[in-house]
Amino acid sequence: MRNLTLYFEVGELTEVVFNDGVSNLARTSVRGKSGGALRTAGSFQWTSAVRALALLIVKTASTPSDALLRGLGNSLAASLDYAISKQPMWLTEMFGCDQQGISLARRLILRTNPERKRPGPVTLGVNQSYLPVTQITVFVNGKRCDAEMLTALRCQLGDIESVTTLQASAA
After folding, report:
1. DSSP readout, the chain?
2. How many CB atoms lie within 10 A of CB 160?
3. CA nearest 159: which of 44, 79, 70, 84?
4. What strands, in cross-sheet order, belong to the sheet with 26-31?
5. At what angle do helices 76-86 and 48-62 cross, to 10 degrees?
6. Contact 106, 47 (CB under 8 A)
7. Full domain range(s) for residue 73
């Protein structure tokens, strides 16, 4: 069965483990320029596209019915949309490719107005038919996240809606 696990330390993504459900082989990607001692691991750097991916997955785990990333020009959503279009190495290492060499990230993330070919924002969401929310797990500092921790993590990743929610609940 397909599943995705994200590991965060101090509000930044440090490791991603993805099982595509076909090969039953878990793909591990770690933060850095290479897998280092983890020779079979892929790697990623903490870019705006990776931050957008992390935020989208955390939003989906937190509020699956309303988990979208939307943005124009230099937004997080546009950064991730661009990465999905260009299929950089980190994305293919993280999720793998199909037989035609197309990154499975394109199946995982649904896009409206991809590459902003029309005026207006790009909108991204997790394809919950491809990866059910029940198969997403998030850990922060070695501890599995509950709803409150997911909301706090969304704030750290730059989700403005969560900041507003936390401020309202604190008042």
Report:
1. --EEEEEEETTEEEEEEEE-SSS--EEEEEESSS-TT-TT-EEE---HHHHHHHHHHHHHHH-GGG-EEEE-TTSHHHHHHHHHHH--HHHHHHH-B-TTS-BTHHHHEEEESGGG-SSS-EEEEE-TTTS-GGGEEEEETTEE--HHHHHHHHHHTT-HHHHHHHHHHH-
2. 9
3. 70
4. 42-44, 26-31, 12-19, 3-9, 136-140, 143-144
5. 110
6. no
7. 3-170
Of 31, 124, 29, 118, the residue nearest 76 (C-alpha): 124
pLDDT in tens, 73-98: 889 999 999 999 999 999 999 999 98
Structural domains counted in the chain: 1
- Above 70 in pLDDT, residue 64? yes
The model's pTM: 0.89
* Ramachandran area for residue 115 (φ above 0: left; ψ -120 to 50: alpha; else beta): left
If you average pLDDT over residues 40-54, what whole number do you get? 92
Judge whether 53 and 41 are in contact, CB under 8 Å: no
